[in-house]
Amino acid sequence: MTAHLPAVPTTAEAVVPRQARGGDMAATEDDFAEFVRATLPGLMRYGHALTGNPHDAADLVQTVLEKVGARWSKISRTTDEPLAYVRRAMANAHISRWRRTRRETLLADFPDVPAAAHRDRLEDEPLWTALRSLPPRQRAVIVLRYYEGLSEAEIADTLGISRGTVKSQASKALTTLRRRLGAHAEGGDG
């Protein structure tokens, strides 16, 4: 049995709920469609770095864009940086999902047939493994700083935390990454 993965939205039509669509909303819908077209590749990269795999990233981006699309007219009027708003929503949604699902799931029996897993080519990459092991907020800070190139102030605004928290989370994350990657480097690959 193969799992069907939802398609990643590429237009506002895919993420704006039917009740939000209407003739008077055409300009807002067009603005949102343009926003999605312009930011989708970066949001997918950010989602991949947050979640650790492309499938969960697509789900995260789609879920957040559905919510944002339903409130786009208000968000675009009241928010100076809608991209920062969406990134913050993604980080918050990812942290919430992680908190809900981090508990152990017990099974009565193992499945008879193991699922055919398509391995991500970066799955065993030491940096990705170390990055995935970070707590969600530390991972979000590192991804926004070093992958997306945001400043401490922009990260603080995006995540809704203070600059001091950004600095401390980045410091803790970098210490952890250095320790884990240093141990890997000392173990040698050759």
Structure explained in plain terms:
It holds the Pfam family Sigma70_r4_2. It comes from Saccharopolyspora rosea. Keywords: DNA-binding, Sigma factor, Transcription, Transcription regulation. The chain is globular, with a radius of gyration of 19 Å. The chain has two domains: about 10-15 and about 25-100; about 125-190, Orthogonal Bundle (Arc Repressor Mutant, subunit A), CATH 1.10.10.10. The protein has about 190 residues and is mainly alpha-helical. It has helices at about 10-15, 25-50, 55-70, 70-80, 80-100, 125-130, 135-145, 150-160, 165-185. Helix 2 packs across helix 5 (about 80-100) and helix 6 crosses helix 9 (about 165-185). It is about 65% helix and about 0% strand. The protein contains nine helices and no strands.
Brief characterization of the structure:
The protein is mostly helical and 190 residues long.
Summary keywords:
9 helices; mainly alpha; Arc Repressor Mutant, subunit A; 2 domains; 190 residues; 0% strand
Radius of gyration: 19 Å
Query: Which parts are unreliable, with pLDDT below 50 for 5 consecutive residues or more?
Result: 1-24
User: Mean pLDDT across all residues, rounded?
Assistant: 79
Total strands: 0
- The proportion of residues forming helix, as a percent range, comes to 55-70%
What count of helical segments does DSSP give? 9
| Euclidean distance between termini CA atoms | 40 Å
Q: Report on the biggest sheet.
A: none
Give the topology string: H per helix, E per strand.
Answer: HHHHHHHHH
Number of domains: 2
| Structure class | mainly alpha
Shape descriptor reads globular
Query: In percent, how much strand structure appears in the residues?
Result: under 5%
Organism: Saccharopolyspora rosea
Family: Belongs to the sigma-70 factor family. ECF subfamily.
Domain HTH luxR-type: 131-185
Keywords: DNA-binding, Sigma factor, Transcription, Transcription regulation
